[in-house]
Every structure is written in structure tokens, then in C-alpha cells.
Here is the input.
Amino acid sequence: MTPPTPQPSAAVILLDPQRGQGEPFGVFLLRRRAQSSFMPGRFVFPGGRVEPGDGQDPRSPAALQTCALRELWEEAGVILAKGREGAAPDWPPDAARAAARRALQEQGAPLDQVLAGLGLAPHPQALTPYARWITPLARPQRFDTQFYLALMPAGQEADSDQLETSEGLWRGPAQALMENQEGRVELAPPQVRILGELAACPSLKDLLARPAPAQPVLPVLWASGGQRLILLPGDPDYAAQAPADPERPGSPCPAHQATRLLHQKGRWLPYQAAC
Here is the structure.
């Protein structure tokens, strides 16, 4: 059977230096609804697939940026925008912003038109490319996702849309990973590795200056006898697309050093191959 073609999508890693709770910055996470067809119940970054109104070429940088801005507003209620002719934004009243958000969610109105109605314009320069992940071939739903970094704008609050997501929260990257280990904040696989990278970054300045990798991450999903393992590029068993010894899945490790992710008690946990 031919694997489904991955759909272009975008996600925003929203950062706030005031919400790290002892870490250099906090990250906003959303829990996908339990009824979702993709990653139900998992905590993810705000994002989704490219829609027709985002651009004629769904894989173009402009369409992906528009998708990221739109999904961030739809799912988390955060607007990355500028005033007309590049001026500082004058945020409209909450009621007007809420009505515009509903127009995006329910009517599929183009982002630039909705923002223009508020006297604003999209601000793609607020997005910094970070990484690109492609869903494993074995998945029935696949996405080619561009992840962006963005700073939380002053004067706004992030929240769950209570439609596609059911809960929103701020966590320092290391705290989110610890709560994933404990089963309290169950992360989707890309989030485990990405949050590990963020937790290992000494400052927000260093993170924003980091160049985006040239190659996408294409994980391999291996499953057998109730076991599930995701192999990442660089794992010694990646080329074989299966662990050399399924009885020895590896050793737990810091998430930024993970070459594989082990599914255990409903959680995806960072591991390295056994020596």
C-alpha cells in the first residue's frame, strides 16, 4: 500500500521569558481533544494544516507562514500582527478580536482580510523557522510540519479554543518533560525531542539565533507485539527501520540526546539505543 502523502502544515512554538518558572522561558502547549483523529489527548504546539486561503502553493514559505499565524490565532487566541504600514499594532477590544477569531474558525475567512477588518496586517517576520518534521510512513494521517519560534506579544493572553483543543498551559521546557515522564502532560513525539532541545538551550537569545536544520526529520515508527518505538535520524537502527534487539529498547536519556522514543504506559519517553 502506498503511504499517504504528508499534508503541508505549520506549528508555532510560542515563547515567553516571563513564564519559565525558573527556566529561561516558558512554552505554550495545547492538549488536543480526546476525540481528535490525530494525536488525541496529546499536548502539542498550536498548529494545523495549510488551508486553501493560506496561499496558492501550500508548500511555499508564504503559505506556511500564513498558516502558522492563522492557526496560532484560531487555536491559542494569539495574534501576531502589525499596524497598517508597519506601525505598532493598536489592539482592538476583546469582543472584536473574539468575533474575528470566530470568522477564522467557522467561516474560513482569509487571515489578511480578517486582520484588515481590525486595522491590522499579518506579521510573518515574527516567525523564526526552527525545524521541520514529517510524520512516519506507517501513520494513516501524515503531515509535513514546519515549526516556527515566536515571542508572546505583550497585551495578549493565550488560551485553548475549546474546539480542536481542550486545555492550554505554560510550562518551562524541562518542567513539561518532567510532567510527561510522570504522565501529567502527555506530549506528542516531536514535542518530546523539541522540548529537549529547548531545555538544553541556555537562553532565549541563543535559541532565536540558532539556525534551522537544512534537512527535515523523518522518524520511523516500529511496532510489534504491543511494543512501539520511534527511531530518529542518527539512531544506529534507523537505516534498518527496526531495533536490532526488541528486548533491549535502549536506555533513558535527556530528551535533547534522544535517538529514539519509547512508548511506555501511554507516554513517549526519550531513549538512546543500547550499547
Summary: The helical segments are 61-76, 94-107, 111-116, 173-181, 189-199, 204-209. DSSP finds six helices and 14 strands in the chain.
